[in-house]
Amino acid sequence: DTGVSQNPRHKITKRGQNVTFRCDPISEHNRLYWYRQTLGQGPEFLTYFQNEAQLEKSRLLSDRFSAERPKGSFSTLEIQRTEQGDSAMYLCASSQDGGNQPQHFGDGTRLSIL
Amino acid sequence: QQQVKQSPQSLIVQKGGISIINCAYENTAFDYFPWYQQFPGKGPALLIAIRPDVSEKKEGRFTISFNKSAKQFSLHIMDSQPGDSATYFCAASKGYSGNTPLVFGKGTRLSVIA
Question: Given a cut of 90, is residue A101 above it in pLDDT?
Answer without folding.
Answer: no
